What we know:
Layout: H1 2-36, H2 44-65, H3 74-78, H4 81-112, H5 126-129, H6 131-159
Helix pairs in contact: 1-2, 2-6, 4-6
Amino acid sequence: MGAFFKGLKRVEVGLLTLLMLAMVAVAFMQVIFRIVLKSPIAWSEEFSRYVFIWIVFIGGAWAVSKDGHFRMDFLLSITKGTIKKILMGLSYICMLIFAGLLVVYGTRLVNSVMTQTSPALHISMSIPYAALPVSGVLIILHTIELLWTNQQSKTVNEEG
Length: 160
């Protein structure tokens, strides 16, 4: 199980790196074409916007894998034992519900815009919107990993 999640995180980081490089390259090309060649690229802003959407949603899922999202943990810092475990469990359950909503409603949105095309790139609008359900699936996977890891560490701590 650990190898799967390690590989998944590598794929996410690789994808984030490629998307960031693509966005920077296109933005740089746009500056060169606009200022030096006096002929701006018509599709660069739209491309950068859609790539940024993917970066945000994949990056959000990757942050879940690191348990790095913002949360108000003052209750966790003042509680111990069973209550702390219950609060952490509730937190993960809320994350799973949110991610499930991303998958369900994101998929509906992707299906509803499938025939629409973007103005400049002339691609299906389902491509930028697909970041929602993909991110939801990744968040579900990473939350399950966090639940599994926390349960395993608690079991080890209780036994050892």
